[in-house]
Amino acid sequence: MFPNFWTPVLPIAEIGAEPIAVELAGESLVLFCDSGGQFSALFDRCPHRGAPLSRGQVTEDGCLECPYHGWRFATDGTCTRVPFNPLTSVQLSKLSVVSFPTKAIAGMLWIFTGTENVLDPQLPSSLLEPSDRYIIHHEIWNAHWTRAIDISLDYLHLPFVHRNSFGGELNDAAHKDAIAQISITSTADGMTVTNRLNTLSSGTEINWHQPNNIVLNLDGMPLLPHFFAIPINTQQMRFMQVLLPNPRIDRSNFDFDEFFAASDDDRTMIESQIGEVPNVNEGYNVPTDEPSLRFRRWYYRAVKNKS
Ligand code: FES
Ligand SMILES: [Fe+2]
């Protein structure tokens, strides 16, 4: 469903010595952190009898112990102990559980959704700051992850979906007959979309970084918002907002909750749509849909292996 990509899964502040079960792109995983601060993402099924390892516990030696017969697994998935069976290390090495590559970046735990040909993630420089600079909020939406990227690339939903909040101004009479000017620049890992109305002097810039990250550049905004649409399964996704505040703003005076809540309207909209984004030859399109069409073309080719 989402093979061989780096994606954040949860804020690292939420992952400790208690194992956490998460679903990522239809796979059940268990996350934990050992006492040395080493993060781990393992397949959440014990290779012995299939018990969920997330119901086990992290032991003093930093392993995850299965709740059924106590087999222990290190953070890299290697089986380190089978109670009552004096096995050699060669025998133990054949009893590993699948482990996925992890990295802690920008206050989030990232996972690579594959086990082979693992390259380092390509990240925008705005995600390379120390973890404590980011303010993170996430929630589960009942929508396909592609719908969240689609709406985030789409400037012209603002006056309608957000008419009762920050989009209200664009819905004013002054802009009723405006013409949109949308230009796209391809980048190494996606595109930059510049949006403007001919009735306004300023515009917005939307950056898409493959596969599932949107960075907004809003004129006058004292922070840089990153949105991640993280696939859980075909029905659900995790919408993660990662804000990098401008160092000059007084954090105590900025209403972060209000900022996070601005996406409630997007959530309502895309939860009312059905399934993944359609392919480019389905539905009707107009010139201002080009950013969305570029994303869809990429999605059907790179993720779904269809042209
Ligand atoms: S099922 Fe995990 S140790 Fe038996
Ligand atoms: Fe929106």
Instruction: Report the order of strands and helices.
Output: EEEEEEEEHEEEEHHEEEEEEHHH
Could you tell me the CATH topology label of the largest domain: Naphthalene 1,2-dioxygenase Alpha Subunit, Chain A, domain 1
Strands, count: 18
Termini separation: 16 Å
Q: Mean of the pLDDT scores?
A: 95
Shape: elongated
Q: What is the percentage of strand-forming residues? A: 25-35%
**What would CATH call the homologous superfamily of the largest domain?**
Naphthalene 1,2-dioxygenase Alpha Subunit, Chain A, domain 1
Q: What small ligands are held by the chains?
A: FE2/S2 (inorganic) cluster, fe (ii) ion
- Could you give the order of strands across the largest sheet? 12-18-17-16-15-14-13
Supply the key terms:
about 300 residues, Naphthalene 1,2-dioxygenase Alpha Subunit, Chain A, domain 1, alpha+beta, 4-stranded antiparallel sheet, Rieske Iron-sulfur Protein, elongated, 7-stranded antiparallel sheet, binds fe (ii) ion, 2 domains, binds FE2/S2 (inorganic) cluster
